[in-house]
User: Which sequence fits this backbone?
């Protein structure tokens, strides 16, 4: 019974993790840059949802679309003016740039929005459905539904559309993509913008059960990176599988381990996977 | 020659700059007393640092508006605020720099126990009095001469948190048998939870769940599943705001009816009710100050910041009022003289009325022996003091739908 409940909770949380992580892994896949500002993109998305709620009484499940748009714009501008300049530079400058963006965003939020905690009041916030004897949290279920929808959309986009194919081509081999007439710079900009937009959307979608303040991103960034690396950095399907594994592992291990060791099993699993397959579950082995 | 002219002009300009600086400095040395404030203004604890500083600034204004420290010729309080960040190592650095830069007569800080521990160590080494409203026992059990804790310590708060709940439950005819304690694994969480656990053993209350969790949860459902499985009548969470919010929402989703008795911190701030709304109704919390007894401070805070004054705002103000009272009494002009004056301070009433016990008197370790914790309860989006029943302005408690007096 408790195990079943943990499985259901773990799956829901895993779906939410997938939504949070997929942008990070998309950015790495196409641009081969590790974006340490992804947690802050999530934070900005939460603020977009919060202010849409305060000013327009918009439900975060709807303002998620707006958050996607805002972060898509921010992502495109950042890529065009900053990220592009370090793409062929040493990795250390890439790290400094994205960490710098993350610090700048945290402090901008502190300066403009203040240090207070904010959240929204929506009717389904504390509601739950009953699946037999098992209660299913409605805000988690909605976030899970968004996660499933986004991952499906992304899959269709990457596999069925020309632009998606171009994106995958750039991810596999940028030089060959250029030779086939693909505008690689533009593909990278759009990929970064989509990756940022997805983090913003995820932020909005989780706001009904969470809260926002300027450094909230730090709370999510560890789990994001664990999942992305576990699944194979750069592999979107890997991120989804990694998310479900981490969500379910956390929920199940809480049944027999103290909560303070909540992530012990996750990290043990993480180390084990990387020992056997250093590129992650679905990661391709890098030649360079 | 032109070179020479330039040089003279430069030297003159420099001299004028220094002259300009020297005049107000010399004049102000007699009429101001510099007090340092080190609080988390960035990072995860920034919200609490902000309210702490707001309380201090109001207290400084109140003291200065009343004519400053009369015994020191009407000297005004000059409050110098520095950011400790939310990291203990940074808190120590910020404190050291503050002391080097402005030579304060005392330092008030740093809200969170983990920050106050490192900040107070720096003050101890430099011989500067450090006043705090942080809870952990460790602050005043290290044999420090310069640390003064104006609030009761964490283990006492923890034991009273249980003690009062047992009394209220008994008065409601619903004796307490089975409880759950969950706490964040920090200096504050651990010391308060241990106090609770010891008291439960002493009173033969069964602790069905005693669970630490890492601060900064992203998902509270596994923790809530454990709480529900424990079948506890009462949940005692020792949490800051963030984890408390996730926990309370997850409890509501699981249709839990458990009575929550919080451990101050995140449970008693304006953001708590703004975020959780009617979910806060009847949630209790232990607290270290009585909101309804703040007097003029409450009105001034509401006018300036448009929320009720959270306990950290008032208690940090109390620290500054204590410094002012000690200066008035001793005419101290050095940190060492102020330390001695604080050690023998004994003040009651007036600005101190919002402290249960309504006074400040430090023991040899620097702990305020006048102060004791109270139980408060959220009613209709407001905090009211409900226990001990004999206290000032105490209202009836609501326990399991029953009104208890």
Assistant:
């Amino acid at each position: 019974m408790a195990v079943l409940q943990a499985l259901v909770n773990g799956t829901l949380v895993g779906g939410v993790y997938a939504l949070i992580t997929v942008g990070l892994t998309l950015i790495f896949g196409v641009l081969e840059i590790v974006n340490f500002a992804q947690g802050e993109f999530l934070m900005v998305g939460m603020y977009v949802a919060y202010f849409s709620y305060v000013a327009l009484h918009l439900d975060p499940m709807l303002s998620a679309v707006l958050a996607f748009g805002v972060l898509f714009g921010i992502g495109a501008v950042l890529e065009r003016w900053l990220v592009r300049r370090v793409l062929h530079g040493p990795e250390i400058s890439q790290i400094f740039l994205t960490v710098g963006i993350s610090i700048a965003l945290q402090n901008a939020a502190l300066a403009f929005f203040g240090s207070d905690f904010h959240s929204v009041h929506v009717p389904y916030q504390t509601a739950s459905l009953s699946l037999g004897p098992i209660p299913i949290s409605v805000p988690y279920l909605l976030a899970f539904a968004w996660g499933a929808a986004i991952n499906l959309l992304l899959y269709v986009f990457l596999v069925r559309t020309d632009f998606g194919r171009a994106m995958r081509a750039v991810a596999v081999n940028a030089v060959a993509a250029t030779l086939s007439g693909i505008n690689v710079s533009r593909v990278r900009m759009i990929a970064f913008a989509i990756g940022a937009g997805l983090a913003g959307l995820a932020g909005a979608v989780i706001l009904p059960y969470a809260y926002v303040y300027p450094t909230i991103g730090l709370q999510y960034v560890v789990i994001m990176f664990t999942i992305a690396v576990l699944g194979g950095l750069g592999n979107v399907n890997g991120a989804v599988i990694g998310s479900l594994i981490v969500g379910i592992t956390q929920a199940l291990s809480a049944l027999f381990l103290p909560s303070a060791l909540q992530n012990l099993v996750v990290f043990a699993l993480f180390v084990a996977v990387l020992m056997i397959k250093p590129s992650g579950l679905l990661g391709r082995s890098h030649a360079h | 020659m032109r070179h020479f002219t330039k040089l003279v002009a430069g030297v003159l300009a420099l001299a004028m700059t220094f002259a300009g600086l020297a005049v107000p400095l010399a004049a102000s040395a007699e009429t101001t007393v510099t007090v340092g404030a080190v609080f988390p203004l960035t990072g995860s604890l920034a919200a609490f640092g902000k309210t702490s500083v707001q309380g201090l600034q109001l207290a400084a204004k109140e003291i200065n508006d009343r004519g400053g420290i009369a015994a020191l010729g009407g000297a005004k309080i000059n409050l110098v605020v520095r950011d400790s960040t939310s990291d203990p190592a940074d808190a120590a650095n910020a404190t050291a720099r503050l002391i080097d830069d402005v030579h304060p007569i005392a330092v008030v800080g740093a809200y969170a126990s983990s920050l106050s521990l490192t900040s107070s160590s720096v003050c101890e080494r430099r011989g500067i009095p450090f006043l705090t409203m942080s809870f952990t026992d460790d602050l005043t059990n290290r044999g420090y001469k310069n640390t003064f804790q104006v609030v009761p310590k964490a283990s006492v708060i923890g034991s009273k948190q249980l003690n009062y709940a047992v009394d209220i439950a008994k008065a409601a005819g619903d004796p307490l048998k089975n409880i759950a304690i969950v706490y964040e694994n920090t200096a504050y969480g651990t010391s308060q939870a241990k106090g609770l656990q010891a008291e439960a053993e002493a009173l033969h209350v069964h602790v069905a769940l005693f669970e630490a969790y890492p601060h900064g949860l992203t998902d509270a459902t596994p923790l809530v599943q454990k709480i529900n499985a424990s079948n506890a009548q009462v949940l005692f969470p020792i949490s800051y705001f963030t984890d408390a919010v996730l926990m309370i929402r997850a409890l509501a989703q699981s249709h839990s009816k458990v009575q929550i008795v919080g451990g101050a911190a995140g449970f008693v701030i304006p953001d708590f009710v703004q975020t959780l709304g009617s979910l806060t109704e009847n949630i209790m919390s232990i607290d270290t100050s009585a909101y309804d007894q703040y007097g003029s401070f409450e009105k001034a805070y509401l006018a300036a910041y448009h929320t009720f004054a959270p306990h950290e705002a008032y208690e940090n103000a109390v620290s500054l009022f204590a410094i002012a009272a000690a200066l008035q009494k001793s005419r101290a002009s050095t940190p060492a003289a102020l330390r001695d004056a604080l050690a023998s301070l004994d003040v009651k009433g007036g600005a101190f009325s919002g402290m249960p016990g309504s006074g400040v008197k430090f023991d040899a370790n620097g702990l305020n022996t006048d102060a004791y914790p109270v139980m408060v309860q959220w009613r209709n989006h407001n905090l009211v003091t409900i226990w001990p029943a004999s206290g000032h302005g105490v209202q009836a408690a609501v326990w399991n739908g029953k009104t208890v007096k």
